[in-house]
Design brief:
- The chain is about 65% helix and about 10% strand.
- The chain has about 575 residues and is an alpha/beta fold.
- The chain has 2 domains: about 325 residues, Up-down Bundle (ABC transporter transmembrane region fold); about 240 residues, Rossmann fold (3-Layer(aba) Sandwich).
- The strands form 2 sheets. It has a 6-stranded mixed β-sheet with strand order 6-7-8-3-9-10, sandwiched between helices. The chain has a 4-stranded antiparallel β-sheet with strand order 2-1-4-5, covered by helices on one side.
- Strand 9 and strand 10 form a beta hairpin.
- Helix 2 runs antiparallel to helix 3, helix 3 runs antiparallel to helix 5 and helix 10 runs antiparallel to helix 11.
């Protein structure tokens, strides 16, 4: 019953399976004890009827009180155990589910996140886990416990009268057959509702992230109208899903409750025929008052069980995605980066085709070329942020595809064009580059990256919160903090992707000076479009159409007639008002 298929169906951990089994067992115990209360009432009424008919003495009142007291004590104890098993243990499972998801995503290649929408992933971590938590705590233990306890009660009832047992319980299997028959309809509607909900979350996130551009272009009305349409559609899908689910749930409940009528009719017929005694019918009427109760909550939530399987499949899709694995040790012989016939594609779009070049240790290697030529892709592949399907990338003779990404990245400092900062202080955002760095080390890195100038003007200096993704800073200030973070790490390999793109000429000159002083002896891979950024490079690799078109020292490439680099330099020099020597 609770095998691997069940575990995957509801995205349960090994401990989660144990929790469901425990909850099921205690639910069975609770249901049987509650039914035992009906048995006590039956015994009392049976003794009372014997007194009325045959004049037998009633049992001592202290015996009755003792039975009732024992029933209440057992009921309280078992209900407490059931509550702890169904709720208390499950909350730990929710924590485990979220932590395991985070751990799994931490080890996934970056390419996975390029294919998944942020709102979709957020919905999986928060919404889907919440939905499963409700099923884990409110449904699984109750439902399976109800099945088992009802089966036990049915066997006991058959010993009294099989005809009344059938009349009493026939509606239970019919009700569940009806519900399970509607499963595909509910799942299809759930997928539509889920997609509509993600579209709403995505629309809200997109609007908030781009609010400045929306206002600047006077597009508020259009964006709000589109968002309203998404919300309205989501509301319609939710109503449609609730309606279709509610119809089947209520129909199943009515069918199950028809057992009351059939029991009364069957029992009356059997009494008139002299085939059963009145007390037997009375016992079955007592049983009816409780036998359906365990299913009441399950019927209401069984449709949610079907829906939860969609959420579980989304969680398992993350867990089934192959991790970027590798050795836990990285001992290169130097830090030369060698691209050897590397090919790479985003989905079906081929970006790199047989790229080969070497970025030597102690040198600055610049990647230049037209937009879309694969420069940023090369930088990310060099740090194994994606895995390559063709060729190899080696650092110090070690294939980086064989090294665990977290271990590998210990030797890398990166400053990409898209700066990511956290809603924390300036000090902590820079300290992210080196865990445990002292304040003095952080301040030294900030000064080297020319951050001191604007930090000193902040209300609390280094302890000033900078807002979500550095919202309180300018683009140039954000980029300088990112550079300071990389300088603080002081790794042997440095990847710079348009690191000075947001700086003015004066600040760019200062930061370039800092980089020149602090990056000596390191393997530096620079991506830039400005010629002044790459003019001091030791080597330039020109990419075009995903291939290495030219490579060499800047002076060599500038002498190439009809060369791509010379052409790019000429265009920039003309726009800047300076010329290149022939």
């Amino acid at each position: 019953m609770f095998g691997k298929e069940f575990q995957r169906k509801y995205a349960l951990s090994d401990q989660g399976i144990k929790n469901v089994k425990t909850a099921t067992c205690w639910t069975v115990v609770v249901n049987l004890i509650v039914m035992g209360g009906m048995g006590i009432l039956y015994l009392i009424m049976s003794q009372y009827m014997d007194t009325l008919v045959d004049g037998k003495p009633l049992p001592a009142s202290w015996m009755i009180l003792l039975m009732v007291l024992g029933f209440f004590i057992l009921s309280i104890i078992t209900h407490m155990q059931q509550y702890n098993a169904t709720y208390g243990l499950v909350y730990g499972e929710v924590k485990t589910a979220r932590i395991s998801l985070a751990e799994r995503m931490r080890k996934l290649p970056l390419g996975y996140f390029g294919k998944r929408d942020l709102a979709d992933l957020t919905e999986t971590i928060m919404g889907d886990v919440n939905r499963l938590e409700h099923v884990w705590s409110h449904c699984l233990g109750y439902l399976y416990g109800a099945f088992i306890s009802t089966a036990i009660i049915a066997v006991m009832m058959i010993t009294f009268d099989w005809r009344l047992t059938i009349a009493c319980l026939w509606g239970v299997p019919v009700a569940f057959i009806l519900l399970f028959g509607s499963r595909k309809l509910n799942e299809r509607q759930s997928k539509i509702t889920k997609a509509a909900g993600i579209a709403v979350a995505d629309g809200i996130q997109e609007t908030l992230e781009n609010i400045r551009e929306i206002r600047a272009t006077n597009q508020e009305e259009r964006f709000l109208r589109e968002l309203d349409e998404k919300i309205d559609y989501h509301e319609k899908t939710m109503l449609s899903g609730e309606l279709s689910c509610g119809i089947f749930v209520n129909a199943a409940s009515v069918i199950m409750r028809l057992g009351v009528a059939t029991t009364v009719l069957t029992g009356t017929s059997l009494i008139l025929a002299g085939k059963v005694e009145f007390m037997v019918l009375f016992m079955f009427l007592l049983v009816i008052t409780r036998v359906y109760a365990p299913f009441d909550q399950s019927l209401a939530l069984i449709a949610e069980m079907f829906v939860s399987q969609i959420s579980a499949s989304r969680l398992m899709e993350i867990h089934d995605t192959k991790e970027a694995e590798g050795a836990n040790r990285f001992r290169p012989q130097g830090h030369d980066i060698v691209f050897d016939n590397v090919g790479f594609a985003y989905d079906d779009e081929q970006v790199l085709k047989g790229v080969s070049f070497t970025a030597k240790e102690g040198e600055v290697t610049a990647l230049v070329g037209p937009s879309g030529s694969g420069k940023s892709t090369c930088a990310r592949l060099a740090a194994r942020l994606w895995d390559i399907p063709e060729g190899s990338i080696r650092v110090g003779g070690v294939d980086i595809g064989t090294v665990d990404p977290e271990v590998l990245l210990g030797d890398y400092s990166m400053v990409f064009q898209d700066v990511v900062l956290f809603d924390d202080t300036v000090m902590e955002n820079i300290r992210l580059g080196k865990h445990g760095a002292t304040d003095a080390e952080v301040i030294a890195a900030a000064k080297a990256a020319n951050c001191e100038e604007f930090i000193s003007k902040l209300p609390q200096g280094y302890e000033t919160p900078i807002g979500e993704n550095g919202a309180k800073l300018s683009g140039g200030e954000r980029q300088r903090i990112s550079i300071a973070r990389a300088l603080l790490k002081n790794a042997p390999i440095v990847l710079l992707d348009e690191a000075t793109a947001s700086l003015d000429v004066e600040n760019e000159t200062k930061v370039q000076g800092a980089l020149s002083r602090l990056l000596q002896g390191k393997t530096v891979l620079v991506i830039a479009h400005r010629m002044r950024t790459v003019e001091a490079a030791d080597k330039i690799v020109v990419l075009a159409d995903g291939k290495v078109a030219e490579e060499g020292a800047p002076s060599e490439l500038l002498q190439k007639e009809d060369g791509i680099f010379r052409h790019m330099a000429k265009l920039q020099s003309e726009s800047a008002g300076w010329s290149i020597a022939s």
